[in-house]
Inverse folding.
DNA sequence: CGGCGTTGTCATGACTCTGCAACATTCTGC
DNA sequence: GCAGAATGTTGCAGAGTCATGACAACGCCG
């Protein structure tokens, strides 16, 4: 898999395909769902970085899905963009009131969609694909899928990369092992939570030559945090 | 020489002139076509950096032109903006399904048009198609359709050439096998993704005598990247 | 037709990564 | 300071990923 993961919930096949095509082309990972049930399964499987939801869905309205996602503690932070066919003011307001982070009226251009996604991801604190984040000499290049320290490439395996990427886009926040597993592996996967420790260690070892391992901080009985402040 | 070249396909003389005037004023090179046939000739003659197409054209719909341009491997990457007179929803959706990168509804202000063009060109992110890209002794001549190393022509088969061309115009970016297939073969073709490995290998073998094969980097579980930095 | 270059597919072996378990160390409350 | 809990460290086997060579299908041109 590649880049940020976006879940597209849309019943009309043609539109869904078009959206997926545009997103993949831009380098996002895409997961598709045609109704709320499938969407829930996908959410349970692995939490995406952003969700696009059609307003009109066959089994249950997209609103309902949005609302429930925003109610659940595990998925509350997931940014949501609603796709609405009508340009009616009422819809937009209702959508936003129920927790969508943004909405976009059909029809829309791929450019428009990508712009919105970038904006929402930025606001959510994670990164759009065309952005570069820098942190004390640590430079994260999303497009290039690598992290450099003073122009030296950090040799990271996939899991370590994703973990550092995750932390770098959410500094100063503590994440429990449970949360990390849900976001980086997928909540249905059966991974021991002690595995996180090992992954953290590998990450620290990779950062150690540059003295940056101190940024990966242990918060006892809570989880881990990425921060440049002293413990 | 002008800056980027824009092809304007529009049957109404007055509108075409107005658009051309605005674009030239902004520093773009402009080429005009009044129908699809002329447009095709212009495309064959010299590939522009962007194409503006009117939705309603006398001989053939602009849609048809868009679709065929996006189907053709040579012109697939050409960004297209559609001009549509009607604000009807159907139009836009159809336009997008057929591959236009953006659309703009008439009437529009010159400022709006320029903004869209800028955004689409930025997103396309490719270097000008008529430029010569040089990379550590590796020279890509897109006009001559060949690649040279210290004035020696690299013996490349078509597929390898296209792949190297693709990578050279987008350095430092990782592309998944899926993406490479979609962009180099076409999204509708069914090609095994392992085929990419083989193609990469052939490319590396061609570059190896010059010690340039190290630029083609494997990014484990993500894809490949063209870069002159160390792994 | 037949040789030649090109292209996609496959099987195999080499290699890296990853999660786990087992043991070592540190921390916390008492 | 001690017991128990939480975290750090290490080696390893299985899983996953990639490079490589062989090969068949195809088109092209004499």
């Amino acid at each position: 898999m590649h880049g940020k993961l976006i879940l597209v919930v849309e019943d009309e096949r043609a539109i869904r395909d078009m959206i997926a095509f545009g997103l993949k082309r831009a380098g996002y990972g895409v997961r598709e769902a045609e109704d709320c049930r499938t969407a829930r399964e996908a959410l349970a499987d692995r939490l995406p970085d952003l969700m696009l939801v059609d307003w009109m869905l066959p089994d249950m309205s997209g609103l309902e899905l949005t609302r429930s996602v925003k109610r659940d503690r595990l998925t509350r932070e997931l940014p949501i963009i609603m796709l609405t066919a009508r340009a009616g003011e009422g819809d937009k307001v209702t959508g936003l009131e129920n927790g969508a982070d943004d909405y976009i009226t059909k029809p829309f251009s791929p450019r428009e969609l990508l712009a919105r996604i970038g904006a929402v991801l930025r606001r959510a604190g994670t990164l759009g694909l065309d952005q570069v984040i820098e942190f004390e000499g640590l430079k994260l290049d999303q497009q290039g899928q690598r992290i450099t320290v003073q122009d030296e490439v950090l040799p990271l395996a996939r899991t370590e990369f994703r973990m550092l990427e995750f932390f770098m886009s959410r500094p100063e926040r503590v994440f429990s092992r449970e949360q990390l597993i849900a976001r980086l592996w997928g909540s249905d996967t059966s991974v021991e939570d002690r595995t996180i420790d090992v992954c953290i260690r590998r990450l620290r070892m990779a950062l150690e030559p540059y003295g940056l391992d101190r940024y990966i901080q242990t918060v006892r009985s809570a989880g881990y945090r990425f921060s440049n402040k002293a413990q």
